[in-house]
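To the wet lab folks,

You asked to see what we're planning to order before we commit. Fair enough. Below is the target structure as tokens, and below that is the sequence we designed to fit it. If anything looks off to you, flag it before the synthesis order goes out.
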């Protein structure tokens, strides 16, 4: 049900086509937004694998969805009765899709144009921050994690990042001598694979970590891993960052509602 008169199926289908292409395949009043998605029913099929990691009832909780795309996870959090849901993205087309989906679903969700580097402008911490499918699209991934920790994560963070390479977690010493070389030849050593041009035809796929690197980066930025319910997905809690982590600079945009696209991510 939408706010006001519902659209006829013909008008709804036309509007969805006009707002496309969609990366989130969502069902709006019986109409799929991306029925031919190359990943299938994405992100719903992935969501089904870890949805039980979060409470069914989020009453009283505030949620920030960073890199919200068309708003799939924002809508799911509001359906779970979250008190407040804010979705931010740097791409205005995704935000237009998200606002349309929320309106047609009758859900009160706020959306703003904002990049992850500018979250300090929100001046607010949230009970749950969703950061799904964004990290590998960033030129400065550790800075992004540090900014989230410093400015917006009040308690929990739901995190996902594309991973490639060895999936084993190595047992590493706290320190190695300067003469040590062999440890870096281990395929499971924490690694970030740098993509100079494109991966999967996407020029914004910059750094793709292996599993050990993802977990080490999260810990280094101050996030304790509570659960890893499925491959690439982590539920984290705000803890203490590495003792050498410096407070990141606060990057404040001129207007948090009128910013150009910074990364055409595919979360």
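Sequence we intend to order:
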């Amino acid at each position: 049900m939408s706010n006001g008169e519902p659209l006829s199926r013909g008008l709804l289908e036309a509007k969805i086509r006009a707002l496309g292409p969609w990366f989130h395949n969502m069902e709006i009043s019986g109409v799929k937004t991306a029925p031919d998605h190359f990943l299938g029913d994405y992100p719903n099929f992935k969501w089904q694998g870890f949805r039980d990691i979060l409470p069914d009832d989020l009453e009283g909780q505030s949620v920030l969805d960073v890199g919200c795309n068309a708003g799939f996870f924002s809508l799911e959090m509001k359906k779970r009765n979250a008190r407040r849901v804010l979705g931010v993205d740097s791409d205005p087309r995704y935000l237009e899709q998200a606002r349309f989906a929320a309106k047609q679903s009758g859900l009160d969700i706020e959306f703003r144009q904002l990049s992850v580097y500018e979250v300090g402008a929100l001046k607010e911490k949230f009970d749950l921050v969703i950061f799904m499918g964004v990290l590998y699209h960033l030129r400065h991934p550790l800075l992004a994690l540090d900014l989230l920790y410093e400015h917006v994560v009040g308690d929990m963070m739901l995190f996902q990042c594309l991973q490639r390479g060895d999936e084993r977690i190595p047992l590493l010493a706290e320190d190695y001598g300067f003469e040590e070389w062999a440890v870096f030849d281990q395929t499971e050593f924490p690694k970030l694979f740098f993509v100079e041009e494109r991966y999967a035809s996407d020029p914004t796929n910059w750094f793709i970590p292996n599993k050990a690197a993802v977990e080490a980066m999260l810990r280094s930025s101050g996030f304790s891993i509570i659960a890893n319910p499925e491959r690439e997905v982590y539920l984290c809690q705000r803890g203490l960052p590495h003792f050498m982590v410096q407070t990141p600079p606060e990057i404040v945009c001129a207007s948090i509602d009128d910013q150009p696209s910074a990364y055409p991510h595919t979360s």
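Structural context that might help your review: The helical segments are 9-19, 44-47, 72-79, 92-105, 141-151, 211-220. The longest helix spans residues 92-105.

Thanks,
Computational group
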